[in-house]
């Protein structure tokens, strides 16, 4: 299942992330892809807030330490693969153990280590539209992630109606346009 969301500003990114955090489950893996400055760490901070991290401001890019851990409703494991030489080095960090655990794994620069990710995960590709606007392309790989994507706009919790930009489902791969 694929969905594209147009996110108008940082506040909408934060609302989206908080809502996503509310919907994630034990063992969830979220792969974040996008250029430098796209807002991956801002999104991780908001997801962590949605998961109940007490001090979301403490969530920073783990570029130099590679993995940050934060206590929350579900433990948050924040990976940054930017400085890694490739999938082998990522695997040597023990990523599989985190993926098999009961926490939520958020992987920045996931495209650099894609072959090490579990078959089922949520991939969010962030495209910079302009200084404040972003486009999120969500690819839900697996039934649990499809349910998360379907529920992103539902519910009554904080951010349930976010983002305020447009949302449109993508046609299934291989489907032609009418």
Key structural traits:
178 residues; alpha/beta; Rossmann fold; disordered C terminus
What does this structure look like?
The chain is an alpha/beta fold and 178 residues long. The chain has one domain: Rossmann fold. It has 5 helices and 8 strands; from the N terminus they run βαβαββααβββαβ. The chain has helices at 10-23, 40-50, 87-92, 95-99, 143-151; strands at residues 2-7, 29-33, 67-70, 76-80, 104-108, 121-128, 134-141, 167-169. An 8-stranded mixed sheet has the order 3-4-5-2-6-7-1-8. Helix 1 crosses helix 2. The relative contact order is 0.27.
The CATH C-level name is Alpha Beta
CATH architecture: 3-Layer(aba) Sandwich
Mean pLDDT: 86
Q: How many domains make up the 3D coordinates?
A: 1
**Main β-sheet: number of strands, strand sense, barrel status?**
8 strands, mixed
Fraction of helical residues: 25-40%
